[in-house]
């Protein structure tokens, strides 16, 4: 199909509708004109996370200006499943990696969480958002994972509704066959909303454990016999979730 053959796919943070003419931001102009070397008349696909996906063509590509014209709506807006990733942030490169991979794996919300043993004190919100956008452009998803502000575990848990299944990845459960994630998710109660919780390199504190243990709808699980790094744990848990309860079943 000609439309899905259109390789370039851009997130544009503006209202989109057929007939609109849009002047692109300089980074997007650079990407289309100098990285992909596209010229006037080339079709591209655009989406904004709200109005669906559109076919557009480049109408102007001169030195510092690139404009597109929106031709046709290709897909109505859809949203990924209501799955959150709550995680204690790690250092830069692996943090980027988590944001990219979680977006690829279809999470709706990425929420950096301050836990007792978390070593990181600041999170670059714009950088995480840029990673989520790039992953959405690449994976064909129509929405962008929402990046929440870095908040304490208690604050995040307060926002986590009781009906949201909380999948607590607990390093102390590692290798506990009774708690393995596949069995736990296969037997999990039916639910529309879920959240995966990953701790910091230092693990969860005793008071965090006590709090999590007392929560309703909280599934304490093991990700196998080895202690994984936080980024590996996040991707493993999200993949298991999507394959057993989520959109890999489609
Ligand atoms: N320093 C800790 C490990 C922390 S690993 C220790 O040695 O005990 C970072 C996070 O990844 C953990 O808090 C947990 O959420 C997750 N994780 C890593 N390996 C896991 C496993 N085998 N089972 C469940 N969760 C795991």
Features:
single chain, 250 residues, alpha/beta, seven-stranded parallel β-sheet, five-stranded mixed β-sheet, 8 helices, binds S-adenosyl-L-homocysteine
Account of the protein in words:
The chain has 8 helices and 12 strands. Strand 3 and strand 4 (53-62) form a beta hairpin. The model has no long low-confidence stretch (mean pLDDT 95). The protein is of the alpha/beta class and 250 residues long. The strands form 2 sheets. Strands 6, 7, 8, 9, 10, 11 and 12 form a 7-stranded parallel sheet that branches. The radius of gyration is 20 Å and the shape is elongated. Helix 3 (92-104) packs parallel to helix 4 and helix 3 (92-104) runs parallel beside helix 8. The structure holds S-adenosyl-L-homocysteine. S-adenosyl-L-homocysteine (SAH) binds next to helix 8.
Short description:
The protein is an alpha/beta fold. 31% of the residues lie in helices and 24% in strands.
Rg over CA atoms, rounded to whole Å, is 20 Å
Q: How many strands, what sense, and barrel or not for the largest sheet?
A: 7 strands, parallel
Number of strands: 12
How far apart the termini lie comes to: 22 Å
Q: Class by helix and strand content?
A: alpha/beta
Global geometry: elongated
Mean pLDDT: 95
């Amino acid at each position: 199909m000609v439309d899905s053959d259109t390789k370039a796919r851009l997130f544009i943070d503006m209202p989109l509708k057929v007939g609109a003419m849009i002047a692109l931001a300089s980074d997007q102009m650079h990407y289309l004109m100098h990285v992909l070397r596209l010229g006037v008349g080339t079709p591209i696909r655009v989406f904004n996370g709200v109005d669906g996906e559109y076919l557009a063509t480049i109408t102007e590509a001169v030195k510092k200006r690139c404009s597109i014209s929106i031709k046709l709506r290709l897909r109505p807006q859809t949203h990924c499943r209501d799955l959150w990733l709550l995680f204690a942030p790690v250092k830069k490169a692996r943090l980027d990696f988590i944001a990219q991979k979680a977006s690829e794996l279809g999470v709706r919300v990425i929420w950096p969480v301050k836990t007792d043993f978390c070593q990181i004190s600041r999170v670059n919100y714009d950088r995480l958002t840029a990673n989520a956008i790039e992953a959405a452009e690449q994976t064909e998803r129509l929405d962008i994972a929402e990046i929440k502000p870095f908040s304490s575990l208690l604050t995040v848990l307060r926002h986590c509704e009781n009906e949201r299944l909380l999948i607590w990845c607990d390093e102390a459960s590692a290798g506990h066959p009774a708690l393995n994630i596949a069995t736990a998710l296969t037997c999990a109660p039916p639910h529309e909303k879920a959240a995966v919780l990953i701790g910091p390199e230092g693990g969860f504190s005793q008071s965090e454990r006590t709090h999590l243990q007392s929560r309703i709808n909280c599934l304490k699980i093991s990700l196998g016999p080895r202690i994984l790094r936080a980024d590996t744990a996040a991707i493993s848990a999200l993949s298991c979730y999507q394959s057993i309860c989520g959109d890999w079943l489609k």
